[in-house]
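In these records, each integer encodes one residue's backbone shape. Here is one protein:

___
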Amino acid sequence: MSSEYEQNVAKLLIEKNEKLQELKKNTTSNKEAIERLKTELETLESLFDNYNLGLLYFRRARGGRSGLRE
């Protein structure tokens, strides 16, 4: 089960990867555009990973203290 956030970030990752592959195939492509896309991909991957790590923490912690309060 994935959230809307995860789906949108994953969709952006796919789109940016496809665009990067197209630019790499084109011999006249701008190197600055390629570098910018690489930076955007790294940022999106970090956002995706950080979200998943944070959500994993809360999923594991959910209900962990409920037994202590009874």
